[in-house]
């Protein structure tokens, strides 16, 4: 099977490409294109890439991800997150390739108190969420049978920036930290999300919407304290933030925990718990530190 990964320079794209390239049992061919190598909003560039590489399956990891900035740049966010997937979906329809399109928990309002099932009506409250929903709808419209929307959330990896990286840095230096306890979500190791994408790609029954997050739920405060604990730092160094301490242009959802009911439909187990994934991720990054903390 020939895979084409777009947005291969991003967090999820890097983990997915590594997964595919290290799993030689299936004999897959993998083409991983960074943004500079393929602009998904350019129809001519997309057509040329399909003509040259002739993919059987495309995984779209390319996205505009600046959540706060999108409030002032919604047109640009829509161009990349809405029009880009439409162009890819149209190319897949012409070439009969499958498409896995990565989306987000931001398509929901965040007002729920139980996990959102895959079929729950979207109601985005941010420009970023609206732009991602536009991409979802383009894929569903153009590829009703061969398109799959894969929502993920709270991604972290072994490199780059983000909440987990910031907490890891503070834990390693035994510095104090502050985190909110009124936002619930699912910390998801990018390597786990990549593995779930591979499962969907290799399944002949995966279409529609799937949620690819680690299971369970946590607040930012709980996540931060678990990072400190795993790295042998005092979890008490993480203080509860005052309400509204981190307010930005984009409203933050209180609860965007995603359900995983559809995995059983393709004979796959549900994703593993987020704490288990976090411990493995930190063990790979800091084996001696984690081993010492366990003693």
From TrEMBL:
Highest taxon, organism lineage: Bacteria
Lineage, top ranks: Bacteria, Bacillati, Actinomycetota, Actinomycetes, Streptosporangiales
Keywords per UniProt: NADP, Oxidoreductase
Enzyme Commission designation: 1.1.1.133
UniProt KW Transmembrane helix keyword: no
Broad EC category: oxidoreductase
Species this chain originates from: Thermobifida alba
Pfam families: RmlD_sub_bind
Name by which UniProt lists this protein: dTDP-4-dehydrorhamnose reductase
Residues in the signal sequence: none
Homology family: Belongs to the dTDP-4-dehydrorhamnose reductase family.
Pathway as given in its UniProt record: Carbohydrate biosynthesis; dTDP-L-rhamnose biosynthesis
GO molecular function list: dTDP-4-dehydrorhamnose reductase activity
């Amino acid at each position: 099977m020939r895979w084409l990964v777009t947005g291969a320079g991003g967090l999820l794209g890097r983990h997915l490409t590594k997964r595919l390239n290290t799993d030689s049992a299936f004999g897959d061919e993998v083409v991983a294109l960074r943004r500079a190598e393929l602009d998904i909003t350019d129809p001519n560039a997309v057509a040329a890439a399909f003509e040259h590489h002739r993919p059987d399956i495309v995984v779209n990891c390319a996205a505009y991800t600046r959540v706060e900035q999108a409030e002032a740049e919604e047109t640009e966010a829509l161009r990349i997150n809405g029009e880009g997937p439409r162009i890819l979906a149209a190319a897949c329809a012409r070439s009969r390739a499958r498409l896995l399109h990565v989306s987000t928990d931001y398509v929901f309002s965040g007002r729920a108190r139980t996990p959102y099932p895959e079929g729950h009506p979207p109601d985005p409250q941010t420009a970023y969420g609206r732009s991602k929903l536009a991409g979802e709808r383009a894929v569903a419209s153009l590829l009703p049978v061969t398109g799959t929307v894969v929502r993920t959330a709270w991604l972290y990896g072994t490199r780059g920036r983000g909440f987990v990286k910031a907490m890891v840095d503070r834990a390693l230096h035994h510095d104090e930290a502050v985190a909110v306890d009124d936002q619930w979500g699912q910390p998801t190791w990018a390597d786990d999300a990549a593995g779930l994408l591979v499962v969907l790609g290799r399944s002949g029954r995966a279409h529609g919407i799937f949620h690819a997050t680690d299971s369970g739920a946590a607040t930012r405060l709980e996540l931060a304290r678990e990072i400190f604990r795993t790295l042998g730092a005092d979890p008490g160094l993480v203080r509860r933030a005052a309400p509204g301490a981190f307010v930005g242009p984009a409203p933050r959802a209180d609860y965007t925990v995603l359900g995983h009911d559809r995995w059983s439909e393709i004979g796959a187990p549900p994703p593993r718990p987020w704490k288990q994934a976090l411990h493995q991720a930190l063990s790979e990054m800091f084996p001696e530190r984690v081993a010492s903390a366990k003693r």
